[in-house]
Amino acid sequence: MMAGYFSGGMLPIRATFELFVRRLPRNRAYLVAAGLDQALEYLESLTFLGEDIDWLRNQPAFRRVSSEFFEYLRAFRFSGDVWAMREGTPFFPMEPMLRVSAPIAEAQLVETALLAILNFQTTIASKAARIVHAAGDRPVMEFGARRAHGLEAALLAARAAYLAGCVGTSFVEAGRKFAIPLSGTMAHSWILAAPSEAKAFSSYADLFDQQTVLLLDTFDVNVAVKTLIDAGLRPQGVRIDSGDLAAASRSVRDQLDRAGLTSTRLIVSGDLDEWKIADLVASRAPVDTFAVGTALATSDDAPALGGVYKLVELEEGGVIRKVMKRSEGKGTWPGAKQVWRSDEGGIAAGDLISLNDEPAPSSARALLEPVMRVGRRVTPQPSLEEARGHCRRAIGALPSRLRGLAAEATYPITRSAALATLTR
Amino acid sequence: MMAGYFSGGMLPIRATFELFVRRLPRNRAYLVAAGLDQALEYLESLTFLGEDIDWLRNQPAFRRVSSEFFEYLRAFRFSGDVWAMREGTPFFPMEPMLRVSAPIAEAQLVETALLAILNFQTTIASKAARIVHAAGDRPVMEFGARRAHGLEAALLAARAAYLAGCVGTSFVEAGRKFAIPLSGTMAHSWILAAPSEAKAFSSYADLFDQQTVLLLDTFDVNVAVKTLIDAGLRPQGVRIDSGDLAAASRSVRDQLDRAGLTSTRLIVSGDLDEWKIADLVASRAPVDTFAVGTALATSDDAPALGGVYKLVELEEGGVIRKVMKRSEGKGTWPGAKQVWRSDEGGIAAGDLISLNDEPAPSSARALLEPVMRVGRRVTPQPSLEEARGHCRRAIGALPSRLRGLAAEATYPITRSAALATLTR
Asked: Is there a smaller number of Cβ atoms within 10 Å at the N or the C end of chain A?
């Protein structure tokens, strides 16, 4: 398509694309915008290497494409403007979470990458928000690297989970790269490799000065907890990873308390998700921390987000053309848009989607903000910690019905009269 | 745990870990091993950078760890041996698809990465095999980059899909990196950006010498096909991406044939999966190629594979100790193992899981082969094309009942008497 725009003399056309979802995934009443930092990093660093250009040029499909096109690629940089929702912002179907305005060939090229980056982190952040909500005031750790869709996905899942309220990750590289708090525990292999469970526990606790978490379920949870008590250990925490977690947590808590280890924290793991956590919370299981892997790092009940990136506006020589597709069940709304959120008493009361050139409604906040101008990030961008704080506050300001696990509640989204008229 | 092995003087212990799944994911009657090439590449290239070591050393958890440990990391290389199933091999629960023997700290370190790499590609290859089977003799293209879990996942999903029988991908970078055949089509934005649909079609078809695929559903499929016929175009293919694909494909085929465009191929896309493809095939829709995105690149019905990596054997000073965990519902089988597959008349009749030091059964093939010795790949490794051929033959040699979409059939897996006795 870039070769087509180039060959057709269409490079002077400036295009605006918007990224949004048409409907909510299963079990979701809202989404949490995430991945913007990686998306902007991609746009800032995008170039074609000489070897890539040589490879493209040799593809049979390109045999009619002029050599000027490949020269154009050689000098290629993304020079567009980007507006986006802040990371951590809850959003809804048909609301653009990102808008790109750039020469048409540039805006087109970045479609797949922007979608892959933003769809994924938004998927994980939206799942993490549910899990964190289910855990109530108990912290949730992200433990899913081994089940993520490869190592890059593991890294970005840890980031998105932290953004949406998890307190840390077990993936050391994510801690290093994003300054996410790290916490892990031993594996069962540590116990199996030692001469005895007692020796396994005591050597680990000594090395890490009791600031560690001992794993209780390699053989028998109740024997293991007696073993660590008899050895005089006072670990920061213990973890149970299998069996009936509610029953085991009660029995372990009881044994620890009777031995005076009242400050030893109890961590549970093992195929947890928001529903199992809600059950454990409802059963008053004495769990201090939930560690969640597979369900979180893959968003297993809704692993894909149907984000799309659609052309809404063209400008050439000062003339603006607002466009839409009418495909059955996949139509779009024309024109560059803005999303306005109204509050009532500190709680979000509804959103308005309007054309970007309409006057601002009174007393509503614009959710799309400029984040990149002429290919360079607008500074300062919020840090991950700031985005995490924003996310906590913004989810806290949603109507409480939206946070229920059943995800049956809806939120009022209105289209402006001008947008409705233009669409018609 | 590495610091623990180091501090505890356990480095001389040689450990054997096996990677396997405990049960099949939903809707799967078999799995397809994939990702070995990336796993071995990871093991061969694994080192610690100086800056990473400095960062680790400053983590509060490591304050009691001796500086000798960090010197050990500085010289770290993976020096182990690896046995694995060839990529493309169908396998079943409790069968190790990979076995690592190495000094214990090395074998432990690589757990998370090996799982993330192999779980993911195996997930996608196993899904792709179902989709390819549903399509029968019609080719399936992988179109899912935008919905994959980030750009690395998109790249590896394209690879795994091709391995398991897809004919190509729309992700150009996957074509460049893995020599996977590329095929794509225009987006709706190409049509919207042009002065008219007729102009959009003809300029694209001219540039690519009719060797392209025109997208019909931006406004109205039947108008679009009339437009391209009236313009005298003879595109290689046309694509329908929305609406009732069976009805639209019949109407489009009919119009094309009546205009003499009998060799123009008909490609359909739009949230396809193996069940929707089976329905289209059953309804005799005149589709030539299926393009599958989201469902394939995320394995949306079963997005995570519960692969685990478990310690089975330890060796120190010539003394071997075979170990297992007994956790409730998560127990393992002890000892290094081999998997043997028997054929009857060219069809797989059953697998035997035995201890590696048992004599080979008569007339069965060993599925685990040596792929790395002392940290270096055994050469030659099969190319992606060879692995793809092996996959096609190996899936073709499964009992046909296993290939049904209902995935209700089972396959006989036997444990050797010696392994059963040892486990008891």
From this structure: C
